Amino acid sequence: MISPLIIYLLAVLAGIGAATHALLSKRDSKSAFGWIVFCLVIPIIGPLIYLIFGINRLHQAALKGYFARLEADESASICEPENTNFRPISAVGENVTGKGLRACNSVTMLENGEVLYPAMLKAIRNARTKIYLSSYIFDNDETGENFITALCDAQNRGVVVKVIIDGLGEYMSLPRVGKKLKNCGLNFARFNPITLFPPAIHVNLRNHRKILIVDSEIAFTGGQNIGNRQLASNMNNPHRVIDLHFSFTGKIVDELERAFLRDWHSSHGKKELTAFKPVNANLTQAKIWTRLVLDGPNEHLDRLNDLLVGIISTARERVWIMTPYFLPGVEIVSALVGARLRGVDVKILLPARNNIFLIHWASQKILPYFIEKNISVYFQPPPFIHTKALIIDHNYSLVGSANLDARSLRLNFELGLEIFDPVLNAQLAAYFKPKIENSLLVTDQQLRAISLPVRIRNGIAWLFSPYL
User: Fold this and answer.
1) Which residues contact 76 (CB under 8 A, 6 or more apart)?
2) Which of 113, 124, 150, 310 is 20 to 30 A distant from 368 in Cα terms?
3) CA distances to 328, 407, 421 from 466, in Å
4) CA distances from 329 to 29, 157, 336, 366 (A)
């Protein structure tokens, strides 16, 4: 029989050990402080939760080695394309990534599943050589079945098919879709899977990227997952979501394909027999220029955060942001305030109804500061708006998978795609304007009218913002 004293000492040692690990490994002081207090104040439970949620378990050495093997594209990117005027904003991403710009032959905005899914399925059905698909959520429903059928048909006619599903995102729809993929014989892998034996019950470090590559010719990326929830025109759909995705052709497709293959190796764990070879030309006279910015809890940590701080700081006329989750760090907040003080039109569009109530409560805690600084914040009416997009001035847009919260900017594997194109910028602005007109402008009076219990609730939720 183990004495209570020994149990107490073990609990204390576990708390000190977990707190020390957080102190030495965390880069965010607020996150480190929160974990240290949690581990020391709540014996046994605190260290156990830290073990599950707080530790980055990725094998850094293996990942870095694979990155080196994939860097096969020796074609030079272009820092300042001829007849363009992208400086100084283009210098930000260049310094963050160490790369210049990649040509893009075309970019198409695709709103909601009604527009996106037919385009994706058409590309899959017309595929000749390969299909690479990565999705955070792949629902086991009618939409998911349509994709599985198209992927199986492609594989049966000799197309190489590779599918990545996030190990946690797969649980968003039960029964999990992985069983269907396996039964069809599809070549798929789970990213960072959750398992009991061996124990791997970690919910952080998720692959939140959404990528589809077909024949190295066309790429799709953005914020939309695969499932009926993205069918926003169905008024009887209780979980309908409004969202944006984009399709691309040109040199940028090679960049997205390489990003997929990095994730594939991390998930699949096997060395590819053939090296990746880019096939698209970086046309010097392209009208659209792009840059892929990968972010994740490895050597890419803070890339998107640094990018956002830099590009917002270069804005001269407008910074319009649409995001479902808004809990930015102090650096981004400072950049937004600085832009507004320079006279820049700063608008932030958030959903009035959020699917994650803790984030919604926490964001309400910080909104009074933005109103005080004359930054316009709008609540978009239901259904839930999952769109992630940012436009700056009249020739820069940033799209991709990342939200403006700690989970996206520090804990997830995300991607951002810089697009230097006045045409797409104008299209996104035209997409923003009616949503602004139909949204509720948040005022100081409305925030003051919030009852004390609700404000306390929001404040408590905000305390956990580094982990939401």
Assistant:
1) 100, 282
2) 310
3) 10, 7, 34
4) 12, 49, 11, 11
Closest CA to 123 of 131, 111, 134, 113: 131
CA–CA dist 130, 254 (Å, integer):
13
Contact indicator for 177, 140 with CB cutoff of 8 Å? yes
- Per the CB < 8 A criterion, the answer to whether 304 and 422 are in contact is no
Asked if the peptide bond before residue 383 counts as cis, ω within 30 degrees of 0, the response is yes
Comparing C-alpha atoms, which of 271, 314, 305 is closest to residue 89? 314
> Which contiguous run of DSSP H or E holds residue 165?
strand 160-166
**Is-contact 246 399, C-beta < 8 A?**
yes
Provide the residue type at 68 as one letter. A
155: nearest Cα among 189, 179, 188 = 188
Domains of the chain: 4-53 (no CATH), 60-79+105-284 (3.30.870.10), 303-467 (3.30.870.10)
> Amino acid identity of 322?
M
Torsion of CA 50, 54, 55, 60, to 10 degrees: 180
Distance CA 51, CA 229 (A): 33
Q: 337-392: per-residue pLDDT in tens?
A: 999 999 999 999 999 988 888 999 999 999 999 999 999 999 999 999 999 999 99
Tokens of 247: 């399709």
**Residue 341 burial (CB count, 10 A):** 11
Banded model confidence at residue 216, pLDDT cuts 50, 70, 90: very high
Rounded Cα distance, 260 and 133, in Å: 8
Of the CA atoms within 13 Å of residue 383, those in its CB half-sphere come to 18
- 398: enclosing H helix or E strand: strand 396-400
d(CA 339, CA 375): 10
Tokens found for residue 74: 């020796």
